[in-house]
Amino acid sequence: MSEQELQQIEANVRFALDQLGPLSDVEFGLNEESVEWVEGFIERQRCRPDFDLEQASGLVGVLGSFLGACIASATGGRWHKLDQDRGWGVLLPDGSTVFPVTKVRKQFRDGLEGGETITSLYQVAVEFVATGKLQAARKGSTDQ
User: Fold this and answer.
1) How far apart are CA 38 and CA 24, in angstroms?
2) Which of 43, 46, 107, 133 qualifies as a cystine partner to 116, CB 3.0-4.6 A?
């Protein structure tokens, strides 16, 4: 685990809070309401005629770090790096890992109309995965 990479994630989160908070119309912080606002921000950016996903890798990193911090804050999870290919994710209390940077990149690429929503990842991670409800539901469906 690279301490430098983890420090960059933390710097990205601070940057998102400092820069996006004043632009938003919500109580901006590490919460679901802010995730919903960022989802709309992503949609507004990707619809701009000059938007280029290849040029937006820094923005993807900042917003993915922010999303991950929101999930970690709500679940008691923590950042960890699985391997070089999958990169950094948030390890949830049930042992599952979510990849917020990947999800942000997918929403930028495919948008809400393509089924990509960072709010959905947040809600599923917080309400189902981290609580063990998803695993229990899977187990229940295989017992029948």
Assistant:
1) 9
2) 107
> What phi and psi values does residue 51 have, to the nearest 5 degrees?
-70, 135
Structure tokens at 55: 């040029």
Residue 144, SS3 per DSSP: coil
Structure-derived torsion over alpha carbons of residues 65, 49, 27, 68, reported in degrees to the nearest 10: -10
The Cα-based distances of 28 to 57, 59, 100, 104, 108 in angstroms read: 23, 18, 18, 18, 21
Tens of pLDDT, residues 7-47:
999 999 999 999 999 999 999 999 999 999 999 999 999 99
Structural domains of the chain in order of their starting residue, each with its CATH number:
3-143 (1.20.120.1090)
Burial of 4 from C-beta contacts in 10 A (0-12 / 13-18 / 19+): exposed
